[in-house]
What does this fold into?
Amino acid sequence: MHISYVIPHNDEEKLREYTQFISRECRIRSIPMNGRLDDWRTALQECVALEKALSHLEMVKKWHESGLVTIPLVVVIEILIPCILHCENRVGEKFITMLLRRQLDQYTGPKMDFIDSMDRMFQTKVLGTMTSPSHWRLKHSKDSEGQI
It folds into this structure.
């Protein structure tokens, strides 16, 4: 699970698991669990961002104390690689989404059937498995008349 995990609609089991995950992470960090689950998530995201910033500051302090005046290239790469991988994943996801939206526009049957079929296929065959499905969903919206 990830802090930004999107709970599938009407999945009480995933909601329970996610709530336990967030509450455990909040307790580890002594974050007060006031309000709703979204409030806990926001507080946890802020705390994790602060932890990362403090970690970088500690690293810079150690470099300064050791007399290092430039950032070692290996550290720059370590900082950038997750960002590069995240960007690559998002670009790939955007590419898939745009192709499927084009197909959705041309699909003549019930649009929700197409969306559900693609969601299941990508969750269990492309980006995950039956035992460990991904959480990917084809994003869509409805017009004022409820049509996709």
